[in-house]
Amino acid sequence: MERPDFLNHSAEHLNGNLKGKDILSVWQFDAQTLDHIFSWSLEMAEIAKKGYKADFLSQKILANLFYEPSTRTSSSFTAAMERLGGSVISINEVKYSSVTKGEDLEDTVRTLEQYANVIVLRHPEMGSAAIAAEAVSIPLINAGDGVGEHPTQALLDYVTIRKEQGMLDGLAVTMLGDMKHGRTVHSLARLLSLYQVRLNYVSPEILRMPSTIIQELEAKGVQQSEHESLSEVLSDTDVLYVTRVQKERFEDTAVYESVKGLYVVTPETLRAGKESLTIMHPLPRVGEISKSVDSYTKNAAYFRQMENGLYVRMTLLAGVLGKLPA
Amino acid sequence: MERPDFLNHSAEHLNGNLKGKDILSVWQFDAQTLDHIFSWSLEMAEIAKKGYKADFLSQKILANLFYEPSTRTSSSFTAAMERLGGSVISINEVKYSSVTKGEDLEDTVRTLEQYANVIVLRHPEMGSAAIAAEAVSIPLINAGDGVGEHPTQALLDYVTIRKEQGMLDGLAVTMLGDMKHGRTVHSLARLLSLYQVRLNYVSPEILRMPSTIIQELEAKGVQQSEHESLSEVLSDTDVLYVTRVQKERFEDTAVYESVKGLYVVTPETLRAGKESLTIMHPLPRVGEISKSVDSYTKNAAYFRQMENGLYVRMTLLAGVLGKLPA
Amino acid sequence: MERPDFLNHSAEHLNGNLKGKDILSVWQFDAQTLDHIFSWSLEMAEIAKKGYKADFLSQKILANLFYEPSTRTSSSFTAAMERLGGSVISINEVKYSSVTKGEDLEDTVRTLEQYANVIVLRHPEMGSAAIAAEAVSIPLINAGDGVGEHPTQALLDYVTIRKEQGMLDGLAVTMLGDMKHGRTVHSLARLLSLYQVRLNYVSPEILRMPSTIIQELEAKGVQQSEHESLSEVLSDTDVLYVTRVQKERFEDTAVYESVKGLYVVTPETLRAGKESLTIMHPLPRVGEISKSVDSYTKNAAYFRQMENGLYVRMTLLAGVLGKLPA
Asked: Which of C56, C78, C311 best probes binding to A when mutated, by most A CB atoms within 10 angstroms?
């Protein structure tokens, strides 16, 4: 993949070697690097489950710098570091920090660089992760920069699809809900463009996938199609990736009320799908997947998806800190 | 003890074995299990004091999930986990978490289950701990669920009484202050009903012990009596358990002003008590026990009570994680 | 140095031995103790950089109690403890804690004493650290008590000057900006009075160094001079210590606008200085030192200053916990 303009030179192609690198964008990954990450995630699952003393990262410190709240992502990185014997400095309340005294992001990360070996950054502005990475010489991992990227989410989605379905080539992946605002579906679609997948986007008219992304993926030869109703593609779908349709996205609440039912997944919905259909969701969910789905099918994979997030983040932390073989 | 209706089947009787169990309610405890906890708390005190490398819980992670602030309880569980070599994910600011995005408690704990080995939950609603425990397969410890239960507080109170007085049978325990709202005194009274104790409740008329609790304990044959003045029972009291009388509980502040002095303990108050009288308080105190009491008698046990909380929580964490002999 | 009135007897002279002591004030330090701290800070830098398993403080717990937000100081103490194998209980949001229930500082620290081996306290009121230290028997380190003291900042400033310049005797140290409100410059000036330094204070008229401090240092024979413009002393300065001039300190914003440019350091400013001039700042900066200075001179020492803070705090924690040779 080619590097887009807003990324600086910290966002290097990884070519299978994470050591000392920043993880800023899905654009840095190729199929070989993804293979490595998949294999290592399986190893990390063993480490976490067997619970033997892992000290890969003993004496290493992670600075977990969250300018926006995200319990889920922040906890996942904390657990990943702790599972490998490392320590964590959590800065979850940036509004209370020196930032309120007017300090800029670059000075903040340069200060944390004095204390820590790796930085994880969540920030509301697109491009902020690249700016921060440029300011420091230790590795920085982007945990979401506004409408920009959320590469670790895309990686855990990739690992989950591969674990659940065994391979990626040949799959039909249907993304359901808000295609317009979700950095999650944007990052995932880009990552999947490395494989022979067909992508279906099912959304209300006003929440369609941005044409820039559709054109990007078209240029790579990815088969894509857009729909307003899941029933048009469900029977031929292998992976159903559900996201939330937020009421506040609609100017006219009558329109919202008229469409919302189309983007809720229930056991009833699933009866028309393949028995092997994998159901995913980045969580938190707020009704888009009814709770009865959880026990309806063993292919409801969204909590395993969270679990895979732990293993992917263990892999990335160990990798950028130079503790994995290249 | 019998399980009340609001508890689900996660709240099993422990029968001396904590492994894999949830700790939701004092109703789960019998005298044999309490004996185990007492003995292990003494061991844990040795471990914490000698400071040799305890790695009972190395590679184990506690998710400390607090929907309400409680520095004291949260710090105590954190220290307990760390003293045993384990790690902690702290989620102390739930209002900033995905919960604000509308996620429900069950999904939140199911997510944390992917990262952690045990969950400690403080939540403002009665019954929430039982609901959360049902949603996950890892052990969950109730650190207070609204007006419901606070079993670890009752356990540390029990350990403290036994350490200070040597035994429980035969003791007269006087509870002073707000008998109506305090889950602490409710839980403790229930736990003490396993022993041959006499219970005196001293409170303003409007803050009397709920009759449901009095009837429950009566059915078990516990001797109980109610009073408005401490002087009626002090000379025959072995343990004085003080709680706060909050001004906001009174509709008529004149009534509050007229009674508040009766529920403040000073060295003067104590002169009429036994020399061996143990003085306890769940803390924080706000004037109910004057500071001059701290040095007035070596039997002012409220800071030792906090200390015992550490040992009890070490015991519970090691126990539910299967690291104590049955 | 002599102990001022507001300090209690916890603020003992250290005489080279930190074991079991509280660190409350720069008044506790003599040149011999500072020598020890300097040497140990160099050792700690090796430990942190080589990253070999340091377990000086394994099984020790730090309670990091911050009544005011300070990401920088709090992170620094956390990292220091973790680098030495210890654990941390962070209490960064005191407004959410039992303090809101009205508990006083003494009860809070006496509670934390039950869980932890050492307390670090940041509090908005002068003298609070001394009060808290008196209440507990474990060591307490003052991380800033209002307009009182911030001794660990002064120590890291001292270590930085010595590392950058090789010695202290004979140096001209110029402090620039707000001399009136900054506890940082007050503490540092007092600490430097142990050496043969010349001190220049450059500030707007309304932000001059308090005369009490000038008289104190005069009594010790320190050469001091006051200026309104940096150009008067820059060419003869070895260390330039920059602090922020806050707009809100000025009643008349026209006065602020007329002077602010005088207290901003740029490469232009520095051309008139020595080549060996060390530039320091306690951070965060908000424009007082332009970013172009960072790369203009290798003597821009403010990020190294932060780094030294880590090593000084490792030294203090190991020292008060009795893990350094006397």
From this structure: C78
